[in-house]
Amino acid sequence: MPPRPAMPAAPPCRIRKFLPLCSPVAGLLDVAAMVAYTSSGASALRMARERPRARILGMTPSPATARRLTLAWGVYPVLCQDVVNVDEMTGVALQTAVTQQFAQLGQTIVVAAGMPFGASGSTNLLRIAQVS
Predict the structure, then answer these.
(1) 113: helix, coil or strand?
(2) Homologous superfamily (CATH) for 21-125
(3) SS3 assignment for 15-80
(4) I want to staple 8 with a disulfide (CB 3.0 to 4.6 A). Which of 42, 56, 96, 101 is the partner?
């Protein structure tokens, strides 16, 4: 049996400061779901640490990361394709939230991701989107 991959290292300082802001924003806006686009899983784990009321979708292109996220509190991992821009990311997040029954028409979701996409430890984007 091959050795298990190690959990991601502690994220850089800017992520530690940025992701804790997602939960208060979600509370103020009464969002239906929070979405973390993550390649390593660290963003979704950091969101879950805050124990938000909204459910967390951990969207990742990595099957190994999705398997690890199944063990995290409140994180529902979803396998997705890599995205190339913010508009595509928002569209995929909205579609997934509706398909997985995390949000309905008229509800709001919060999406956290890193630019450039696919780079671990680069969470620096918070997008608020409404399902229409």
Answers:
(1) strand
(2) Pyruvate kinase, C-terminal domain (3.40.1380.20)
(3) HHHHHHHHHHHHHHHCCCEEEEECCCCHHHHHHHHCCCCCEEEEEECCHHHHHHHCCCCCEEEEEC
(4) 42
Alpha-carbon gap, residue 110 to 129, rounded angstroms: 6
Give pTM, 2 decimals.
Answer: 0.78
Distance CA 46, CA 44 (A): 5
Placement of tokens 């996409």 in the chain: 117
